[in-house]
Every structure is written in structure tokens, then in C-alpha cells.
Amino acid sequence: MEKRDKAGTARNEKVLNCLYQKPNAIFRLICFPWAGGGSTYFAKWGETMCDFLEVHCIRLAGRESRFEEHFASDIYQIVDEIVGALLPILQDKPFAFFGHSMGSYIAFMTALHLKEKHNLELMHLFVSSMTPPHSKAKIHIPERRELSEEQIQALILSFGGTHMDFFNNKELYEQYVTRLEADACIIKNYIFNAPAEPILSCDLTCFVGSEDTAEDVEAWKELTRGSFDIHVRPGNHFYLMETSNETFIKNYISKCLELSML
């Protein structure tokens, strides 16, 4: 039994990155990274967010300490793995999800799976920089072979969050583009039909940059019976990397969860 428990813990820690554990926290915030991204950026939020909130970030296969693993084949494989890792830590404390870009889809599908299969519903779903999954405005993603290297680089730059120096490091660039291509396939093959009625009950907040590529973000409200808000912040698809925007998001999340205790 002890060996199995240790194996399960190791497996969960492989998927979940929690840099700042807070045993006395009241809530858990689970963060879901963008396409091509890792877990460190959001895991670091745990240092500066209030003491009643413990932050975990999802670490997907094929990156960081899971570099040697194969990329997931579809979003359902990703969600199954995440749910398996999350279940042991979601039974005792209320929780919320925050997803940026592709992470918004994974967060939404994970929330839906937890509700339908395990009767667990999160307190609040925070999504960022992503067209709703059922919207007709959902972005078209070309195949890598359809684009020249110059077009790929221009596309990466257009989203923001990447410095030109990055392209001079061939090894890092190729690793990133490989991850990005794998994640792009996940988004491209993910189809979610418009629901006849809301399928979640939690509150839902959408953050988006003023120059973002996300469209029709108002349609996120069709997915939940809970309250719905949109916050537009100055910037592009990676607006959240501006310190003022990151601070706004972290403070807003903390305030929402704090108010839920009243």
C-alpha cells in the first residue's frame, strides 16, 4: 500500500507543480498554461498570492521534467491525466481554475469532467485570451508544413510574449516550435458543440487583451449558470505578462475567492 501511495504521489507531482505549499490555505487555484508553455510561470504566483490561496500549475507531457514523454494525442487524454492527479487534492478544499489561451480549453474541459464524472464543481472558472470553444469565431490553425519559417516566426511574434533574441537560440527555438505544433494540433482537433443550456454552475470570468486575437469572448457566458464578467486589459495575446495586468488578475482572483467566503 505504501509503495502504491508513493507511486501515486510521484505521478501527481509529475503533473502538478506547486512551488509554494500552504497547508493552511482555504482555497486551491489550479492554473493551466498556454500552447507551448510550461508550468513555472503560474507556479510562481504562489509566492505573491495571499496566504489563503495555494497555487498549483499543470505540467503537460513533453516539457520541463516530462521532456522525454510523448505529447498527448488529444484534449481528452490531457484531461483524464489531469483529473487523476487533481482528485486527491480537490476533496478537502474549495478550488478554482485559471487558464490562459489553450489552457482555457483544458481548464473548461477539466471542470466539466469533474462535474459530470465526480460530482465536483469548482468555485470559479477564470479564462484568458481564448475564443469560446463552441464559437464560430474559433481560430483557424494552419499546419506547420503550410508555413515558411519566416511565417512561423511572424506568427509567434504577433501573439506577443516572445523576444527576438529567442529566435537566435536554435535549440530552444526548435524545442518551443515542436511543443507549439503539438499543442496546436490539440486545439485544431478539439470540437465542442454549442450546448442547449449552460453546463456549469460556477461563476466565470474572462480576461482578454485590448489587442488580443481572441474573439466572441462574450459567448463564454453561455456555458454557465453562474455570474459572468469580462475584463479587458491593455495589451496583446500575452497581456498578462505586463506587471500591472498580472497584478490585476491575481488581485481579482483573490478578491473573488475571498468574497465567496462571506
| Distinct helical segment count | 8
At CATH level 3, the topology is: Rossmann fold
Which architecture would the CATH scheme give at its second level?
3-Layer(aba) Sandwich
Q: Outline the low-pLDDT stretches.
A: none
CATH class: Alpha Beta
Instruction: Estimate nothing, just give the exact number of structural domains.
Output: 1
Helix content: 25-40%
Radius of gyration: 18 Å
- Oligomeric state of this protein: single chain
The largest sheet has its strands arranged as: 1-3-2-4-5-6-7
Question: How many strands, which pairing sense, and closed or not: the largest β-sheet?
Answer: 7 strands, mixed
Q: Label the structural class.
A: alpha/beta
Q: What percent strand? A: 5-15%
Number of strands: 7
Order of helices and strands: HEEHHEHEHEHHEEH
What gross morphology would you assign?
Answer: globular
CATH superfamily: Alpha/Beta hydrolase fold, catalytic domain
Provide the residue-averaged pLDDT: 90
Note the topology:
Layout: H1 2-15, E1 16-17, E2 27-32, H2 40-43, H3 45-48, E3 53-58, H4 75-90, E4 95-100, H5 102-118, E5 124-128, H6 149-159, H7 170-189, E6 203-209, E7 228-233, H8 243-259
Parallel strand pairs: 2-3, 2-4, 4-5, 5-6, 6-7
Antiparallel strand pairs: 1-3
